[in-house]
């Protein structure tokens, strides 16, 4: 069984407009020990069921009837910001990838991925790691750098940045360099759980919702080069 750190199963919802594909993905996830709490075949249905079922991870296709995947992502995350979204799409177009990330997706996997790659991606997404099909991670990082280079018009009106502890800053710097929680734990000789706690505290202080936003925040401040 695939469980959270508190021992309960990771709950997953699968959204795709092709019934055979949707059922196959749901079956593979269930057989691997995930608790598949809902499925949906169109955008409006996905929003309703995701809000009702409250999964840990939403496996989401972008090309949906009724409401596009990126809009589903935005709506569901507005209601449940702690939800993790893994886009599973046939499109590797850069514009689609960036649009998905900007809408709040934590990861992006192509449908050409193997079952093992999908299961690993869902596990890592549940743990808070950003997961991207090889070749796309650099694209996303490049986009964060581009966005970080653009002036923020409201910067003058924003309050001073919250004070992070030395250890929180250290963890944030390693997150920005792309290390997984496991690698950070080994590097700093602390437990995986402690790394997660530091990240959660940092998210709270900075009023960010997920690790993807945290990486962007860190890059904007040059922490990935430090």
UniProtKB/TrEMBL annotation:
Modification type 4-aspartylphosphate: residues: 61
Domain HTH luxR-type: 157-222
Domain Response regulatory: 11-126
UniProt key word Phosphoprotein: yes
DNA-binding as UniProt keyword: yes
SUPFAM superfamilies reported for this sequence: C-terminal effector domain of the bipartite response regulators, CheY-like
Organism superkingdom: Bacteria
Name the UniProt record assigns to this protein: Response regulator transcription factor
Organism: Streptomyces malaysiensis subsp. samsunensis
